[in-house]
Amino acid sequence: MVFEQFLIFMRAEPFEPFIARTVDGREYWLRHRHPEEFNVSEGGLTMSVNFPGGQYEVLDMSLIISLKTISPANPRQFTG
N or C: fewer beta carbons within 10 Å in the chain? Predict the structure, then answer.
């Protein structure tokens, strides 16, 4: 995944929740643009996804193969 493509999703106005899928099929639902949910390194090589309870995972951006916007049927599932 090209970092610039990821930035388009990340900086969209208004922000739309999206799914980042990795080469091994894992999906990361990015519901908010807040740093509390996900961060991208300055050089764009890695992304950290933060989970409830203080856990986080660091991903190599080159392992992300697709991005997909989400239009929730129930918008309340994306609040909080």
Answer: C
**Residue range 3-71, CATH number:** 2.30.30.100
Instruction: Give the DSSP H/E element, type plus range, for residue 9.
Output: helix 3-10
Q: What is the pLDDT along the chain (80 residues), one digit of tens a residue?
A: 578 888 899 888 888 999 999 999 999 999 888 878 888 888 889 999 998 898 999 999 999 999 999 876 555 555 54
Amino acid letter at 17?
A: P
- Number of residues written out for the chain: 80
**Residue 70 and residue 77 in contact, taking contact as beta carbons nearer than 8 Å:** no
> Using CA atoms, how far apart are residues 66 and 20, in angstroms rounded to an integer?
6
Locus of tokens 């961060």: 39
